């Protein structure tokens, strides 16, 4: 593995925790959702950390911010997918308080990176 600075970013570390939670929480979804909501949620979570990593590797501030904005958009997408999961009773809100904290923390960290 490459020893690059993006792995030292708090937002990268929190995003890695979020991915683990997404994978764990979607394990119990109905089989018919495997190629639907489960796949979409997992891809959105991976997209978040992937865009953080790619953005951190960019030299220009404008490019870096653009990738952080894409990561934040994927985070909002993931949040909506969790709301869908609650509506369909695939998850209970009280069972996902850690995910809620990780989503909010990641959003705040990304927003700070975009502002700076």
Q: Can you walk through the features of this model?
A:
The protein is an all-alpha fold and 116 residues long. The protein has a single domain (9-22, 33-115), classed as 23S rRNA-intervening sequence (de novo design (two linked rop proteins)). 72% of the residues lie in helices and 0% in strands. The protein is built from four helices and no strands. It has helices spanning 10-26, 37-56, 61-87, 97-115. The longest helix has 27 residues, at 61-87. The radius of gyration is 14 Å and the shape is elongated.
What attributes does this structure have?
116 residues; mainly alpha; de novo design (two linked rop proteins); 4 helices
Uncertain spans:
none
CATH architecture: Up-down Bundle
Overall structural domain count = 1
Question: How many helical stretches?
Answer: 4
- CATH domain topology: de novo design (two linked rop proteins)
CATH superfamily: 23S rRNA-intervening sequence
Radius of gyration: 14 Å
The helix fraction, in percent, is over 70%
Strand segment tally:
0
Structural class, by secondary structure, is: mainly alpha
């Amino acid at each position: 593995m490459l020893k690059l600075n993006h792995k030292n970013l708090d937002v990268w570390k929190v995003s890695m925790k979020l991915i683990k939670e997404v994978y764990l929480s979607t394990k119990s979804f109905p089989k018919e959702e495997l190629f639907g909501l489960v796949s979409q949620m997992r891809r959105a979570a991976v997209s978040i950390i992937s865009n953080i990593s790619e953005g951190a590797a960019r030299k220009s501030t404008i490019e870096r911010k653009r990738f952080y904005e894409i990561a934040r958009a994927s985070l909002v997408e993931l949040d909506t997918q969790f709301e869908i999961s609650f509506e369909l009773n695939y998850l209970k809100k009280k069972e996902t308080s850690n995910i809620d904290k990780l989503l909010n923390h990641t959003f705040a960290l990304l927003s700070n990176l975009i502002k700076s």
